[in-house]
Amino acid sequence: MSTDALTKVPHPVPLAVRDLVKHFPVRSGLLQRQTGAVQAVDGVSFSIPRGTTLGLVGESGCGKSTVAKTVMKLLEPTSGVIILGGVDVTHLSPAAMWAHRRRIQTVFQDPYSSLNPRLTAGEIVGEPLANFAIATGSEQKDRVAALFKRVGLRPESTAKYVHEFSGGQRQRLGIAKALAVSPDVIVLDEPVSALDVSVQAQVLNLLIDLQDELGLTYLFISHDLAVVRHISHHVAVMYLGRIVEMTSKAQLFRGPRHPYTEALLAAAPVPDPARRRLQRVVLAGDVPSPAKPPSGCRFHTRCPLADAACKVTDPRLAEVALGHHAACLKRPAMAAV
């Protein structure tokens, strides 16, 4: 099948992963034998319907970016299944994966380091068009100019180099480059965390407008709950390699059901502290090492609700309310109908 055919057949669920695992071996000794593993991602499952955004949120080191890199096949998964546009791409070789790369693109956290400083802005955005044999010559220049206008950049700035753009403009360049091949899914890995707050809002609103216009699907990774709330339709909260809560944005912010999510929301700044709904929770200790995760519930070492059962029983995601899933022994699953 040609890459053109791949991009012209939209799938109702452009991206889905099941039981995704990514462990990094720990080696030691003279012979560098494996003595353990860093369990960066340990059994993550989700699906993103076409035209919607899943916000993946959690503290630094929880595995969010590893999920992104594994979904993109920049890292090979240890186990699990990655479904891209209805096609299982989990075990495809790099050569076989090439035909599917037009379906999924990414925008990185640091727009400066992710863009080639030796190329002009027009060459950066036009590079994917050449790589996938979509357009060359004058047609490529016309497409690049149109992409610049679409993301709010002046077409005449195609001759400039990366260092001549501001941080927000560089991120718009990254978005234009991702859009060049008409992807179904864009993975956004902390795309606004390096920008000023006012510029963050501009870039987020641009992403929302592009999604509405083009029917794009986003996997949006962030540690900032305010940003996730602004752009996401559904939210998945990660802790130590696992999703501990997942539901719609409205349900999550109205009534979190996992103690970790409650602590995150309670700690988030609000415009008027007098109207804070959740009592601030100070979590005990530090995040455990993913190389030696705790037994039982991985959150029990810091959880204010933990008891003896939490130390030995490993809870799985279960539906605790309609469309609302949490992995907590203190929040029992809904009774089967």
Q: Could you explain the architecture of this structure?
A:
It is a single chain. The chain has 337 residues and is of the alpha/beta class. The protein folds into two domains: 230 residues, P-loop containing nucleotide triphosphate hydrolases (Rossmann fold, 3-Layer(aba) Sandwich); 93 residues, no CATH class. It contains ten helices and twelve strands. The strands form two sheets. It has an eight-stranded mixed β-sheet with strand order 6-7-8-3-9-10-12-11, sandwiched between helices. The protein has a four-stranded antiparallel β-sheet with strand order 2-1-4-5. Strand 4 and strand 5 form a beta hairpin. The longest helix has 18 residues. The chain is globular.
Keywords, separated by commas or semicolons:
28% helix; eight-stranded mixed beta sheet; globular; Rossmann fold; alpha/beta; 337 residues
**Spatial gap, N to C terminus:** 44 Å
Walk across the major sheet and give the strand order. 6-7-8-3-9-10-12-11
**What is the name of the CATH class of the largest domain?**
Alpha Beta
What is the count of helical runs?
Answer: 10
Number of separate structural domains: 2
Assign the structural class, choosing from mainly alpha, mainly beta, alpha/beta, alpha+beta, or little secondary structure. Answer: alpha/beta
Give the averaged pLDDT, no decimals.
Answer: 90
Order of helices and strands, N to C? HEEEHEEHEHHHEHEHEEHHEE
Q: Which architecture of the largest domain would the CATH scheme give at its second level? A: 3-Layer(aba) Sandwich
Strand content: 15-25%
Radius of gyration: 21 Å
Q: How can the largest sheet be summarized?
A: 8 strands, mixed
**Count of DSSP E strands?**
12
Which overall shape is indicated by the principal axes computed on the Cα atoms? globular
In which range does the helix fraction lie? 25-40%
**What fold name goes in the CATH topology slot of the largest domain?**
Rossmann fold
CATH superfamily of the largest domain: P-loop containing nucleotide triphosphate hydrolases
| Low-pLDDT stretches | 1-7
